[in-house]
Amino acid sequence: MPDRLQQLAELLSAEGFLSGQDIAKKAGISRSAVWKYIVRLRRYGYGIESRRGMGYRLAKTTDLPVPWELAKILKTSVVGKSQIIYRENIDSTQSLALRLAEKGGKIHGLVVIAEQQTSGRGRMKRKWLSPKGGVWLSVVLKPLVSLTMSTMLPFVAALAVCDAIRQSTKADATLKWPNDVMMAGKKVAGILLDMSAEADMINYVVIGIGINANVETSKLKVDRQNKPEITSIRQSIGRDVNRLHLTALVLEKLEMYYSVLEKYGSEPIIREWRARSDMLGKKVTVVQQDRTYSGVAANINEDGSLLLKTKDQEISIVSGDVIIN
Ligand code: BTN
After folding, report:
1. Which end of the chain has less neighbouring CB within 10 Å, N or C?
2. One domain, residues 158 and 79
3. pLDDT classification of 144: cutoffs 50, 70, 90
4. Is 155 in the same domain as 270?
5. Of 13, 37, 60, which residue constitutes the final position of a domain?
């Protein structure tokens, strides 16, 4: 089905006005099928003008990260090169990516993208609200890095998202430990890592990325204690971001930082991460399931843990949520 959509999108972008009959002939489908595809293309964000006696014309291309448009602009060599799967609606891109990774085959670089998720998953088994307008995607990798080094992958992804948001919005984005991307002090994106490993060998990892892009924040209200303040790119910059370009940038930067990790280890990743974080040196509270710590966020260690200076000691924390006081 998407193949046919792609075919029609390409037909229309190659020509000016095309009559329904011509489209039907060129695509080898009926005229009523043409109409159905025009409706779907419009739903996919294409602006299609229709004029009596002249037919249809592509007035505006889509800004949705559909695979065939991504393929035209994506400058990567692995991520998104073997396959990009796009769904208008899915339970969770992470769950589909995990199922496909488990099946095996050519999964290194596989990307699953959805317009909407009905059961999006967040860190610590939380729900991740994923209405239309966001960027919800999962990337499968078969990393060469060791199991210990794999703790760096969420940092790699957070860096990629932070840089991609900065580049595509020209606005500031920062990082908050462990891997939240923030705009104006509020969470705009999160990273989820799932992996399958045996002994010290990683079979595959699935990196889930959720960006509240063109979303109304009222649709993102979460109901829990210590909930982070949430924002979206739309809310933060007062306009929509082009999600096709944002997604391409995220995938390109993910591949770039990932190859830095493979070649040079965690040091440059942590260095870049620190440079984008504004929480270091600040008073924070770290909330874990059964306890909280207060102190100054002194540093991020080479293994990605947070070095917290409390009143009487220095502790390294491996998981939790940080509230900047
Ligand atoms: C977090 O809790 O901060 C991480 C959120 C990760 C959400 C993304 S959206 C795409 C992928 N599919 C999911 O179900 N979750 C991740």
Report:
1. N
2. yes
3. confident
4. yes
5. 60
Report d(CA 259, CA 144) in Å as an integer.
10
Amino acid identity, residue 107? I
322 beta partners? 286
**Closest protein CA for atom 8 of ligand 1:** 210
Question: Separation of 208 CA from ligand 1 center, angstroms?
Answer: 5
- For ligand 1, pick from 209, 212, 287 the residue to mutate: most ligand atoms within 8 Å of CB: 209
Q: Are 232 and 211 in contact (CB under 8 A)?
A: no
Other Cβ atoms closer than 10 A to 296 = 18
Share of the chain above pLDDT 90, in %: 88
Residue 3 is predicted with a pLDDT of: 86
Residues 186, 104, single domain; the answer is yes
- Residue owning the nearest CA to atom 16 of ligand 1: 208
- pTM beyond 0.90: yes
Do 117 and 255 lie in one domain? The reply is yes
Same structural domain for residues 107 and 27? no
CATH of the domain at 24: 1.10.10.10
If one counts the domains in the chain, the total is 3
Atom of ligand 1 nearest to the CA of 191: 4
- Enumerate residues lining ligand 1, CB below 6 A: 92-94, 117, 120-123, 126, 128, 130, 136-138, 190-192, 208-210
**How many residues are given for the chain?**
325
Q: Is the confidence at residue 272, as pLDDT, over 90?
A: yes
Atom of ligand 1 nearest to the CA of 190: 3
**Are 267 and 295 members of one domain?**
no
| Predicted confidence band of residue 96 (pLDDT cuts 50, 70, 90) | very high
- The per-residue pLDDT for range 160-184, each reduced to its tens digit, is 999 999 999 999 999 999 999 999 9
For the CA of 137, the closest atom of ligand 1 is: 10
Q: Looking at the structure, do residues 182 and 110 belong to the same domain, yes or no?
A: yes
Are residues 179 and 289 both part of a single domain? no
277 CA from centroid of ligand 1 (Å): 21
Domain that holds residue 293: 283-324
